[in-house]
Amino acid sequence: MDLNDFLELFIEESKEHLQSINAELLKLEEDPENPAIVNEIFRSAHTLKGMAASMGFEDLASLTHEMENVLDLVRNAKLMITSEILDVIFSCVDLIEKMIDSIEQGGDGKEDVTDVVRQLTMIHSPSKSIAPETNPAFQESAATAVEELEIDQYQLSVINEAKKTGNRLFQITVQLDEKCVMKSVRAYMVFQAAEEIGEIIQSNPPVEQIEEENFDFSFTILLLSELDPREIQAQFHPISEITEVIVTERTDEELVPASEPTVTPKSTSVQKQQQHKEDAAGGKKKHRSKSIRVDIEKLDHLMNLFSELIIDRGRLEQISRKSEMTELAETVEHMTRISTDLQGLILNMRMVQVEQVFSRFPRMVRDLAKELKKKVQLVVEGEETELDRTVIDEIGDPLVHLLRNALDHGLEETEERVALGKPEEGKVLLKAYHSGNQVFIEVADDGKGINREKVLNKGIERGLVTQNEAETLTDNQIFSLILASGFSTAEKVSDISGRGVGLDVVKTKIESLGGSISIESEPGKGSIFRIQLPLTLLIIFAMLIKTGEETYAIPFSSIVEITKIAKDQVSTLYGHRVIQFREQVVKLIFLKEVFKIPVTETKEQDELFVVIVRKGDKIMGLVVDAVLGQQEVVLKNLGGLLTNLYAISGATILGNGEVALILDTNEFF
User: Fold this and answer.
1) Catalytic site residue 46?
2) Are 455 and 527 in contact (CB under 8 A)?
3) Which member of 87, 235, 291, 417 lies 3.0 to 4.6 Å from 422 by CB, making a disulfide possible if both were Cys?
4) Arithmetic mean of pLDDT over the chain
């Protein structure tokens, strides 16, 4: 077995377990006497330890084992959770995460764990205790490990039902090498291998003792499997530090139920037991949904292939309209319906819940609040909201900046909040929700809000606005000035913020994703940073327009309205051509002039087509020669030779084979 084949799966599942551990530790901090939370953390840590050991990352397995020892004392009510113990466990989790990152980057996952291991050991073993191997009670339980296991009435009914479907019952005794250092890890690997070929009915010693390494160097399990003894033995060959595996089949004559039920291992879940009961009653197994993990690169490739299909579909639709052939029209119409369904399916496959990003923030906020000496409650809503994977991968860093800004600048110091009559615990809300084909993510706080005059004065000082313009700006437009590059009103620079970087990075990143960001704030009440994002970046609805001989596509998400105006409606204000639109003065941009398109028309038009576009709460008019209609277009990258083109975000191939550039209207503002 080549373990490299499973490396990617190991990394992905390890991150999921770490994510779960972090989330549950935060719950434990709020509710330290809840045993269910401790059990959940212990299970994740135990699984992570076993996975690391099976992949050969012994340092990682050993470190996790030390953390597991502490958790075991807590779940058995032998140790009370304190903030100091939690800090050590959090440090351990951070180190484990660092080791997994090292493995992901191609390293060996080795880190200096001395200090953390020392702290963990001081918690679970303040003085040297009797080793399990020399414990008399342990010796007694180990002596029974190779004896024939007794079976209770319930287990007997499960076995009899399983035999109807071709399963046989085997008793498997595993002998470990006496030099084995981590017996529980090897035992875990045995259990894992056994569950791949059948179902474990029970073990001796019980699983709890094996997990605690409270056994000698051998243990026994009862396994239901369709394989023969030789195939079962072969399943355990890849596991190192095993000296012997004895597999014997238990016959019907030996299956006499014991008067008292034996302990079933944890690997047989409650769901499994319930399923067996239903199987015994109904004679058939329940249907279980199945899923597989797919590399995102494969989904990207699938999407690229489908985008070519969309282009060809557009071409066929044009040919069909011109040919006026009924059979061709019917075939194209059917192909359009099928490809539309296929498109929805592929896009749904790429959708990922924002919970994948949101889950890392509670821990970050907790650590940052302790550093700032502030009491903070993070409320997360809408984690089930879905976004395309390409957007999910990019949205994390902007949200980090916004949350750090909310904690450092938004929330007042504890003493100040108390003096203002506010709860001493500040509240930060992280919320996601759908609206049409857009996703909104909000970061809100109940802090002091943004000082309008301070921001405006800084904006005038920096030359971002003139004194005349300042008089016409709305509050939200003034607040948006803090998104400018290098803008900062912080009176002191800290490691967290105040250097004039961060929010401009947020704005740039959001706009590169085809989105926008707006700000609302009220003095003394707090602020809301609202991000608007497209569901997907790959296939978009766009309006095709013509200017000169060139065709351009404008994303629907940017368009407010399309109108036609007479030339004499155009005025000049402060050197800019403008029109009066819906009781607003709207600046005009003539695309012919921007892109230096040669004038081919000889007849001068009396009317102008104007596409009203928006960015946040600002609007602007793009003057074009003609509006061709809406179309679903595939966004294509322009490649490395055409980078940083003004107001161009990409290109698409139209049904007639022509290339149309896709406008990034944000650049015009």
Assistant:
1) yes
2) no
3) 417
4) 81
Average pLDDT over residues 324-328: 87
CA 209 to chain centre: 36
Q: What are phi and psi of 231, to 5 degrees?
A: -65, -35
Beta bridge partner(s), residue 502 = none
Pairing outcome for strands 576-581 and 571-573: antiparallel
Per the CB < 8 A criterion, the answer to whether 41 and 28 are in contact is yes
**Contact present, 64 and 199 (Cβ < 8 Å):** no
Of these residues, 46, 65, 276, 401, which one is catalytic?
Answer: 46
Out of 239-243, 257-261, 454-458, 468-472, which region has the weakest mean confidence (pLDDT)? 257-261
Q: Is 405 a catalytic residue?
A: yes
Residue 288 pLDDT more than 50? no
% residues pLDDT > 70 (the chain) = 85
Is the pLDDT at 41 greater than 70? The verdict is yes
Q: Is the pLDDT of residue 283 over 50?
A: no
Spot the catalytic one: 167, 405, 409, 412. 405
Other CB atoms closer than 10 Å to residue 79's CB: what's the count? Answer: 16
DSSP letter at 604? Answer: P
Q: Is 430 helix (H, G, I), strand (E, B) or coil?
A: strand
The structure tokens listed for 616 are 């946040």
Longest alpha-carbon distance in the chain: 105
3-state class (DSSP) for residue 318: helix
Q: Which of 24, 40, 66, 68 is flagged as catalytic?
A: 68
Query: How far apart are alpha carbons 355 and 604 in whole angstroms?
Result: 56
Query: Which of the 8 DSSP states describes residue 411?
Result: S
Q: Tell me the CA distances in angstroms from 176 to 101, 217, 485, one per residue in order.
A: 32, 5, 63
Q: What is the C-alpha separation between 327 and 335, in angstroms, rounded? A: 12
In terms of C-beta distances under 8 Å and separation of at least 24 residues, what long-range contacts does 478-482 make, across chains too?
Answer: 478/452, 479/450, 479/452, 479/455, 479/519, 479/520, 479/521, 479/527, 480/518, 480/519, 480/616, 481/455, 481/456, 482/450, 482/455, 482/519
Taking residues 326-351, what's their average pLDDT?
86
Task: Give per-residue pLDDT as tens, 492-505.
Answer: 555 555 444 568 88
404: pLDDT strictly greater than 90: yes
Q: Which two tokens stand for residue 97?
A: 């995460």
What is the C-alpha separation between 239 and 224, in angstroms, rounded? 20
Residue 545 confidence (pLDDT) above 90 = yes
Both tokens of 75, joined, read 């779940």
